[in-house]
Structures are given as structure tokens and as C-alpha cells.
Recover the amino acids of this structure.
């Protein structure tokens, strides 16, 4: 199903009429197969009973027992964007749909039924309100009505003892009713400029988020992260995070996932997203070596920080024109250096000034609180040893491309748990493919893995 990227309904048809599926499922020719709704029930049972990784884990343990995977691994890590299955909605639609969900969920309360009857708008009616959406005044009036009704409903619910589902619906309404709204000088609600930090973007899938993998690569959905042994080319752990989460935030989750099935990581290779000082220090405490370049922030075409030589022992900083400054700003409490400043007169007469700074007061170079860690990492990434080890990183990109070939680029289901189901089971499929390829023309390995019938 995941291998062929087919829907539940088409999977039912394949099981009935496709000989390849009948062979794989060991079904006789006259077997009718299964009803497609069984697959939805099966997924739900797996998720509810916390069995999402049961097949994935079994395949990994097979690889360990066959000595394909050692228990101490040098691993590579990367993440990819996943387009969510929920429709992305504007502020008006979010509030309207959240109102509808709350009214449906809490209709057992007399206060809700009475309040709902007093609203001008029928929130149970599907579709946007029938107004002239090109008119700014009508949009303003509609927003005021939506926010007012939402506030009234939220206040009414505070007087009642809500169950889990009712509380979740009420909490969602509370967030979407305020996340995009600010009160102007006339004490009226209006849509604020910019995007809220953790903005809900869909009522159908409230865990989706705005995200970006690059400055231009914006998406709405989730991030899938995979951990892979680059030598065996087998995925050892996976994780799903909201689209707005930083890639490095799920490192512990994937490492612990591998550890739970008996795999210890000794080295972690990734791109600059995993090369921060905080990540290095955290993994250093776990005895894990990080192979990742340090991010080199752009400076709008001017000399980046890497062009300056910071000497922490001598409390000095040397610029590309060989001038050394000891003028610095320190933290009031720790007394640690926060930045170096070059004198205004020096920068104004410097021939490299057009390439260095636009400031009238001289160039300022910031100093990270763990600058020594970053300096050591920058020096190491210039060595041949780093280059040799970093060559393994593209292997995980090829694995992600294979996962996307099986449909991982777009979520099949709504909700983080089901997106994790899709990632985990697709990874299990890809790992099984890899084991079949490795055991091809190797009967002993195939027999050890249980991938063939003994002769």
C-alpha cells in the first residue's frame, strides 16, 4: 500500500485482482480479500495501542541479529518537509470552523444552545459568510462579529465541567480567536501584521504549522527526521515534528529511538542545522562526536564573521586588514565578552570598508557564549579527516529521496500521530527493500533474515 502509493480503497481492489498482491499476501486466487475500512481500523488500533514502530523495530532487530548493523554506529541525520493533509485557512475561516467544532462538541450544555441561538450567524452552516469580501468595511464588521461571538462562547464554557474532547475544542477556539488579532486604538479587533509564532493554520489538522527548509522553501505541514547507518544504508530511527520546529530539536528523540532497540550512536553526521555549539555540547555529554559544519551567517554581501580572527586568550579580534582591536562589550554578570568593536576612525580610513561595514561607527563582531566550541569546530571542518567523514552525509539525502518516491512528501493522513505512522511504516518498507537487495544471491544471509524458504 505504502510501497505502491495507493489509497485504502485501491488497496482493496489490488488485493482482489492483482496477482502480485495475492502472492505477497499469500491469498488464494478466489479469495475476496478485505474491506478497505479495515485498514483505517487497523491504523487506529496501532496508534491507540502505541504499536506504531512494532514492524520497524522488528526489521531493525533482524538486521542486528544478522550482524548487518553493529550495536555501536556512526550515523547520519537529516530532515525533510512534509505537506500536511489539512487545508490551510485564513483567520475568518479558522474562527468560524473552530466555533462550529465547539458548538457541535458542547451542544449538551443549555448555555451553549441558548447562546448559539442568539448569534446572527449560523455557525453550523458550511461555507464562508455571504458578504462582499472585496469590501474592507464588511470584512472589518465580520471580524468584529466573529471575535465577539468567540469571546462569548469561551466565557460561557468556563462555567461548565468539560470532558477531554470538549476542552480540546475550547482550547483551539481560544487560540485561533486571538492568535491573529490585536485591538486597535478604537478598541476594535483587527488582523495584526506578521505571523504568530505557533499559529494554528488548519482546523482539520491543528498540529500542522508554517515551516521552511530554506529561506524560499516555505511549506505547511510537518518535518520528518531520519537517522541512518550510512554503511548498511538502513534507517535506524525516525521522528516527526511540527513544521516550525528547528531540525536539531528532535535529535534526542531519534537517538533515544535508536537506543531503545539496542543501537548506540558514537558519531552523528549532519548539515549545518546540527552544527550549533549547543548541539555539540549536549551530544558531547552523551559521548557522541558531531560531524557537521558550523553555519556561516551571511552579512548581506559584506565580510562575514569568519573573516575575523578572534583570540579569546588575548581578548582581541583581528580584521581582514590586519588591524587588532581589544575594545569589547562584556556581559554585566558573567563578564564574558559579547562583542568586539573596531574604532570609528580606523574603519573610516580603511580601504576595505566598502566590503566590511555600512555602519558610521565602525564594525562590530559578535562573540558567541560558546565561541571556543565554535572555533574548534571551524578548525576541524578544514581538516582532511572531517572532509572524509562528511562525504557520508549525502547518503541520507538519497534515502529521503527514496522515501519520497513512496509518497512521503505529502501526508496521507491528518494529525502528527498518523504522519508518524506513515513515516515509520514507509521506513520499514524501505528497510525491507534494502535487506532483500543485500540478501540477493546470498542464500546464507537470506536464510538468517528469514527472507526465503529453506531448500
Amino acid at each position: 500500500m505504502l510501497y505502491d502509493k495507493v489509497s485504502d480503497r485501491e488497496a482493496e481492489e489490488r488485493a482482489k485482482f492483482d496477482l502480485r498482491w495475492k502472492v505477497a499476501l499469500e491469498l488464494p486466487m478466489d479469495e475476496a480479500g478485505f474491506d478497505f475500512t479495515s485498514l483505517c481500523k487497523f491504523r487506529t488500533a496501532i496508534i491507540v495501542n502505541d504499536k506504531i514502530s512494532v514492524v520497524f523495530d522488528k526489521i531493525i532487530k533482524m538486521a542486528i541479529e544478522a550482524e548487518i548493523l553493529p550495536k555501536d554506529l556512526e550515523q547520519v541525520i537529516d530532515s525533510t518537509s512534509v505537506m500536511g493533509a489539512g487545508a490551510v485557512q485564513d483567520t475568518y475561516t479558522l474562527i468560524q470552523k473552530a466555533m462550529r467544532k465547539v458548538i457541535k462538541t458542547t451542544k449538551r450544555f443549555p448555555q451553549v444552545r441558548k447562546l448559539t441561538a442568539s448569534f446572527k450567524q449560523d455557525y453550523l452552516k458550511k461555507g464562508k459568510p455571504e458578504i462582499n469580501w472585496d469590501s474592507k468595511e464588511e470584512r472589518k464588521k465580520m471580524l468584529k462579529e466573529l471575535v465577539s461571538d468567540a469571546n462569548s462562547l469561551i466565557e460561557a464554557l468556563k462555567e461548565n465541567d468539560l470532558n477531554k474532547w470538549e476542552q480540546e475544542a475550547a482550547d483551539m477556539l481560544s487560540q485561533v480567536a486571538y492568535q491573529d488579532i490585536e485591538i486597535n486604538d478604537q478598541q476594535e479587533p483587527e488582523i495584526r501584521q506578521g505571523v504568530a509564532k505557533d499559529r494554528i493554520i488548519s482546523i482539520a489538522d491543528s498540529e500542522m504549522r508554517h515551516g521552511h527548509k530554506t529561506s524560499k522553501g516555505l511549506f505547511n505541514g510537518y518535518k520528518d527526521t531520519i537517522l541512518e547507518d550510512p554503511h548498511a544504508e538502513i534507517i535506524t530511527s525516525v521522528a516527526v515534528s511540527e513544521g516550525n520546529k528547528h531540525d536539531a530539536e528532535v535529535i534526542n528523540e531519534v537517538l533515544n529511538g535508536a537506543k531503545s532497540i539496542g543501537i548506540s550512536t558514537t558519531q552523528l553526521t549532519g548539515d549545518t542545522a546540527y552544527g550549533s555549539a549547543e548541539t555539540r555540547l549536549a551530544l558531547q555529554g552523551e559521548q557522541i562526536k558531531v560531524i557537521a559544519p558550523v553555519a556561516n551567517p551571511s552579512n548581506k554581501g559584506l565580510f562575514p564573521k569568519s573573516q575575523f580572527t578572534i583570540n579569546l586568550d588575548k581578548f582581541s579580534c583581528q580584521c581582514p586588514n590586519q588591524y587588532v582591536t581589544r575594545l569589547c562589550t562584556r556581559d554585566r554578570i558573567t563578564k564574558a565578552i559579547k562583542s568586539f568593536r573596531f574604532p570609528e576612525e580606523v574603519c573610516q580610513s580603511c580601504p576595505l570598508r566598502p566590503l566590511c561595514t555600512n555602519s558610521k561607527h565602525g564594525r562590530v563582531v559578535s562573540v558567541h557564549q560558546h565561541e571556543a566550541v565554535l572555533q574548534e569546530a571551524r578548525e576541524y571542518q578544514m581538516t582532511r579527516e572531517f572532509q572524509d567523514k562528511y562525504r557520508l552525509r549525502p547518503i541520507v539525502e538519497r534515502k529521503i529521496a527514496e522515501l519520497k518516491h513512496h509518497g512521503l512528501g505529502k501526508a496521507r493522513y491528518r494529525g502528527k500521530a498518523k504522519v508518524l505512522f506513515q513515516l515509520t511504516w514507509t521506513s520499514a518498507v524501505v528497510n525491507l527493500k534494502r535487506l532483500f537487495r543485500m540478501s540477493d544471491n546470498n542464500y546464507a544471509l537470506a536464510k538468517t533474515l528469514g527472507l526465503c524458504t529453506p531448500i
